[in-house]
Amino acid sequence: MCRLTSSNKRRTNSSYAVNAMQWAVANSIVNGSNGKLNPKNNATRAEVAAILMRFCEMSK
C-alpha cells in the first residue's frame, strides 16, 4: 500500500491536490506504482479505469 508522505507531497506541483490525494490514498482509490506516487507521470487507460472502478465500488 502506498502512503502519501512529505516527500510525495513535495513532488506535487499543486498544493490544492494534497488533500484530495490523501483522501484517495486513505480510501485505496489510488495505490501508486511500486509503493510510490508519482504525480508528474501520466496515468494509463488501465490505471484510470481501475481508479474509477474503485471509486464506484465505494458507493455500494
How would you describe this structure to a colleague?
The model has no long low-confidence stretch (mean pLDDT 81). The protein is globular, with a radius of gyration of 11 Å. The chain is mostly helical. The protein has helices at 6-11, 17-26, 45-58. The chain has one domain (6-58). It holds the Pfam family SLH. Keywords: Repeat. This is S-layer homology domain-containing protein. Residues 4-60 form the SLH domain.
Q: How many β-strand stretches?
A: 0
End-to-end CA span: 22 Å
**How helical, in percent, are the residues?**
40-55%
- The succession of helices and strands, N to C, reads HHH
Shape: globular
Q: How many structural domains can be distinguished in the coordinates? A: 1
User: Based on helices, strands and strand pairing, what is the structural class?
Assistant: mainly alpha
Domain SLH: 4-60
InterPro entries: SLH_dom (IPR001119)
Protein name: S-layer homology domain-containing protein
Keywords: Repeat
